[in-house]
Structure formats: structure tokens, C-alpha cells
Write a structure and sequence with these properties.
158 residues, three-stranded mixed β-sheet
């Protein structure tokens, strides 16, 4: 393991999420690509944060705990129930979708290392920061990602 650098252990194919995506799109993206997190880029491709499945779960969990306020349509519900059958009422439901975006739930702090950083330094950074992924950069460009599982794989092969 001595002499290995970030470039030697990184996964070079990094799939970014867009900051303006709704969280539903983010969830689909992570599941489709079998990944648990991704860098977040602006509409211009600049790296602005990181987002993970944990962020989605945290958001949904907090959203569930918020007290539900009576909405305007709740006022009209008894009148509609009186005029229409239950089956017909089911067709009236409108799901407007979430207006929450990746930008709203992402972590704006980015953990990154240059390609030539020793693997031990990468591991130290991940342990100290209690993080699961580090982005490998060349200048301002993300050229790879190192995950905790990726480091375990390197350790297993050593």
C-alpha cells in the first residue's frame, strides 16, 4: 500500500447530480446507477456540493415529523364526499410533486484531494471527516472518486 496515490485507487467514472434536479429525479439517478452518492454540479458544471441517499432519507424523515397544517382543499373535502362516490373521489387526487431540489438537501462542503496524494492521507481525511467519499481533482476538475468501500477493496487486494 505504500506508494499508492489517490489516482491509483480512484474510480475514474464519476456521475454528477445536478443541483436543480428535484429529489425524486435524484433518487431515480442514484438507484439506476447503483450508487449511494454523487458530486453536485451547477448548471455550468462547477462542483458545488455532494449529495447521498442519506440526505434524501434525512429530508424525508424531517418532512414526516413536521406538523401537518390543514390545507385549503381540506375545507371542500366534506362537500365533495357528499356529492361523489368514493371511487370518483380517488380520481380527483392531484400530486403536485416535490419542489425540493438537490441544492436544498446537499452538503455544500466538498472533500477533495489531488491525484498525487498518498492513500494513507486519503484514508486519514475520510476517518477524521467521518465521510464515505472523497473526490479526486486535477486543478478544478473532478477526475475520480474514492469511496470507503473502494478503499476496503484496495486493502483486501493488498
Amino acid at each position: 500500500m505504500k506508494g499508492l496515490t489517490a489516482k491509483d485507487v480512484m474510480t475514474p467514472h464519476v456521475l454528477p447530480a445536478r443541483a436543480d434536479w428535484p429529489i425524486e429525479r435524484l433518487a431515480e439517478f442514484l438507484i439506476e446507477n447503483d450508487i449511494s452518492g454523487a458530486p453536485v454540479t451547477s448548471e455550468y458544471g462547477a462542483l458545488i456540493g455532494v449529495v447521498s441517499l442519506t440526505d434524501i432519507v434525512r429530508h424525508e424523515s424531517l418532512h414526516q415529523r413536521e406538523p401537518q397544517t390543514k390545507q385549503t382543499h381540506d375545507y371542500y373535502l366534506p362537500v365533495l364526499e357528499y356529492q361523489y362516490a368514493e371511487e370518483e373521489m380517488a380520481t380527483f387526487r392531484v400530486d403536485g410533486g416535490s419542489e425540493v431540489t438537490v441544492r436544498d438537501i446537499m452538503t455544500p462542503m466538498i472533500f477533495q484531494v489531488e491525484e498525487d496524494v498518498p492513500v494513507q492521507e486519503v484514508a486519514d481525511k475520510m476517518i477524521r471527516g467521518r465521510i464515505h467519499r472523497v473526490f479526486v481533482t486535477r486543478g478544478d476538475n473532478v477526475v475520480g472518486i474514492i469511496t470507503a468501500l473502494g478503499l476496503l477493496d484496495v486493502l483486501r487486494k493488498a
